[in-house]
Amino acid sequence: MLLDSLMNLIPELNKAFLETLYMVAISLSVAIIAGLPLGILLFVTDRGLFLENTTVKSILGFVVNMIRSIPFVILLVGLLPLTKLITGTTIGPTAASVSLSVAAIPFFARIVETSLREIDKGVIEAAVAVGATPWMIIKDVLLPEARPGIVHGITITTISLVVYSAMAGIVGGGGIGDLAIRFGYYRYDDTVMITTIVILICLVQIIQFAGDRIARLVDKR
């Protein structure tokens, strides 16, 4: 009976798993594209650094902290009008990717900023002393030195997005969370709930293992 239930669930599981990967891939890409420069800007505009600008730092910091302070479920619902405007719908994995992206950008930006703060200030001061331009310092000093930390940040962000994508099922976002709610919760099917939990645990473990391995490979220090 249990085996038959699992076999019947395989098509839905495959679809939900691919939808989860789709949502995570889109939102992670947006987070890296927007969050990386945002994190760098938060760092280099800080007091005592080569592009010090307290006004920019304060405004960016306020916006980042404001978004991060909103629980994801509330953010998910609050961004439904924006989601409708961008994607033309409020349900499905593409629509859920909008809220996931908005949540992921400030999250990843803070991780990037933290990774850059771990760099020895003497390395940055030496680059400034020899006349390196801000772009050269960012490209040739900051990013190479912070590479392991940024890779760890991508790993953490990816895992967070997997968790958030499960929450997106609450508003019909698709993915494994949606499957767990529709088939597991509403139908009181423990098999579905346990199966989705096991899949999520395995997925997170694989992501963490891959992220750790890549971080060690790129760490040339």
Automatic annotation (TrEMBL):
Q: What is its main location?
A: membrane
GO biological-process terms attached to the record: D-methionine transmembrane transport
Entry-linked Pfam families: BPD_transp_1 (PF00528)
- Domain ABC transmembrane type-1 positions: 17-210
UniProt keyword Membrane, yes or no: yes
Which family does the similarity line name?
A: Belongs to the binding-protein-dependent transport system permease family. CysTW subfamily.
What is the protein's name according to its record? D-methionine transport system permease protein
Taxonomic source organism: Thermolongibacillus altinsuensis
